[in-house]
Amino acid sequence: MSIFGPVIDVRPLFPLERQALLDLLRSLTPADWARPTVCPGWDVHDVVGHVLNDYMRRLSGARDGHAGAVFADDETLPAYLARVNGEFVQATHQLSPRLMIELLELLGPRLDEVWAAHDLEAPAGLNVSWAATDVGSPAWLDVGREYTEFWVHQQQVRDAVARPGAAQPELLAPVLGVFAQALPFTLREHDRPEGTVVVLEVLGAAGGRFWAAWRDGRWRMAEAGGEPVARVAMGQDTFWRLATRGIGVAEARARSEVSGDRELTDAMTTLLAVVA
Known about the structure:
The chain is of the alpha+beta class and 276 residues long. The chain has helices at 14-26, 30-33, 44-63, 77-91, 97-116, 139-161, 169-179, 183-186, 236-243, 249-254, 262-268, and strands at residues 197-203, 208-215, 218-222, 230-235, 257-260.
């Protein structure tokens, strides 16, 4: 029995998200490219350079079988990612905004072809550590994680330049659904009787209800049903920002409504869907 929910197929959305990003980037002034973002030490140019890195990394790895950078001795995954991402972003300081836009436009469709070739229910090429560390991830969750990363980075740029957008339900709802797959991992330290159910309600046009249940000795994503012993409700903007630590746990809790088992609601409001 899988711990994850039903397949979320984000593959048709990559071109739509990318077009929104490209339209945004083409509208920016030189001053906009230098504006700071929520990513510590990174301006808009740096965040776009990081997205370009993601395109190149996944093409090189998933398409070409290139192993990429190796871990240093005793380097943790967060430290490794911080180092290699920082190295690439530093190198992109040599690239003009125009060239980075052109590279994103060129490489995006090639990456779309990689995603299209995936069997979504096969094992993932890269496991999603924030969803589980003891069971393998399905390919759809790996692909979904990449979509959420591109979408979130676009929002970080939009926040920096005060240009809201790309938040229509068809683009945002899958982001919320993928992030909700972190619920079982978030609750992992809290054993409960068989059949115990909790619900996370994400409010807004792109939102929904996400259920988790304790079954066969662990938390799993579940279909709606039963009386939840814990309920957390928060707006869609609050949820994705919490999941990516665009806001902290205390702020997310202040924006939420909770009821029921306090230990479980406290855990649910620490949900994290990025490597940190």
